């Protein structure tokens, strides 16, 4: 008996439970598996049907039961185990709350939905060998079943009066039409045929046939959305109301927020930033009525990069320079983290740039993605701060460092357990850090940075304001005393942004379709700043920014409930 006990595996602690969850999740969600670099995932797609979603929920419930037992074991209350356990419990409960409210039965948005996940995963798959391309073909052939499951979930939502917003549906219909190559001026082959065309000639028949199946699946989904789903949701509310908003803000931010306080904070930041923007605008275009008049002047008269290939190379150079100048001074970076690639986003993407995390083995590096929206000339004033956000020292340094320390934390904390507001807050903090360090070298770049900050403050105002139908304050320069609507939100955002009209439209659709996500940038930045300030007070003159940054970036994911306390203690 004693020999058997000695050879039995130790009962799992929370970090082991978290990583066991990741293994099980990959089986159910091969898209997550590909992002993690699991080869067995590459030719598969998830089950998006109601049954598939219930399987995911069952995994969450079983893991929560295992976690409770793991925390009670000796060693389960250490700082490392405690931190992981808190994150895992909070994330799984947030995901279950979203599931149990039926939100996945109306998952239509212009940026985050099953059909976007399906297309997006092809851009990060390995594509160096014939075997890689055989996996691409297998995944394309899996699309009809996967999208049938997605359609079944939406149909279930219709039957239960769980409707997506009409504007989400019309926007996605436009995106799918573009992916099919049926939009005006588009490549008639369609996106999947174009993508398959990059594969080896030896697999031409297999790839072309698979691309045709994928294209057919997209067309059938598009036609069903147009002919069945769109009429079914006609007249549905675009905003979600307080109860659904609280559910989603917990999911995206890892905290039960005081939404009225956050709304007031957004307005405070709006007024502060507006004053700073006016100062910088006067340097660029003296006498300009608004800062955005100066930004419009920069669109045609400011520094710019001409050409799509040229801007990709320019952005790569910007990140390489940032790494060279920051490493050893404000960060201590491994060789793996120093590698990041600049890419151009595929046609039909939303308007906002984005970042994809490296695989766990770094065989796929971190990548930034620029949607060109058909443009060939790119003003520099907003690209500089945006790539400090998306690349270095923003998303790339945080998420690549998480990947680098995954073996010391858990794979869960450094990958699928990511809290959006933590990551977006760090990226916005990174923009501010580069301003503090003097990297924004002229009025053009500073005005672009302030405009980006203003966009994030405006997001807090309009996202909370329109979903909760709050009153616009009496001291507002815009419709004081009225209550927010999507139409007012779009007008306000357009008036206080240097972005073109199509970007503003895409952003508003995003806020309506992903309630509570957009506020995490500014609220997350506030949490990072509060944590740094507390650490500075605690250490006084001994505070070392490089050490603090690396310790902070090695914590793994945290919700905003925990982030300030953990950062303050470093």
UniProtKB/TrEMBL annotation:
<protein>
    <submittedName>
        <fullName>DUF885 domain-containing protein</fullName>
    </submittedName>
</protein>
<dbReference type="Pfam" id="PF05960">
    <property type="entry name" value="DUF885"/>
</dbReference>
<dbReference type="InterPro" id="IPR010281">
    <property type="entry name" value="DUF885"/>
</dbReference>
